[in-house]
Specification:
Blueprint: E1 12-20, E2 23-31, H1 36-46, E3 52-55, E4 70-73, H2 90-105, H3 112-127, H4 136-148
Parallel strand pairs: 3-4
Antiparallel strand pairs: 1-2
């Protein structure tokens, strides 16, 4: 509903979150418009046909069912969990909170290019880094984070 958000935005972050058992795999894309023309190619590229897609009622998603997806809509004006299907967007909403707080902590980097870089790092960490928390990759990420995290 764009509540509390700037309405003169030149770019938006479009997020998709794949969930399979205990795995979470986000995909973030910076887009200039939230139109079906811009979003549908991203959805088709990253989400397999036949998959369940849960979204809010944004009009750009209206044709998902016609494109071969099991589209479930959650109307946030009425509820946050659909009482009939149990569909909800809470996993993605939680991820947005983590992303926003992570990016906000990295002060002084609010440019478009830095936003893309930070989203890429968050995406990569969910796809690869979290799988190696106690292995060499996890230790490397820990050391990098420790060295380059600014004190609060």
């Amino acid at each position: 509903y764009n509540r509390g958000r700037a309405n003169n935005r030149s770019t938006w972050v479009f997020g998709m979150l794949g969930i399979k058992v205990e795995r979470r795999r986000p995909i973030f894309k910076v887009v200039h418009r939230r139109s079906a023309r811009q979003l549908m190619p991203l959805i088709k590229k990253h989400i397999r046909q036949g998959s369940s897609v849960i979204s809010d009622g944004w009009r750009s998603y209206r044709n998902l069912q016609n494109e071969g997806y099991d589209h479930r809509i959650v109307n946030h004006k009425e509820n946050f969990v659909d009482p009939v299907t149990g569909a909800h967007t809470q996993n993605l909403e939680r991820l947005w909170g983590v992303c926003k707080s992570t990016i906000w902590r990295l002060r002084g980097n609010r440019t478009q290019n830095m936003l893309k870089d930070h989203l890429d790092v968050i995406e990569w960490t969910y796809w690869h880094g979290n799988n190696h928390r106690n292995g060499p990759l996890g230790m490397l990420l820990h050391d990098i984070k420790k060295k380059y995290t600014r004190p609060t």
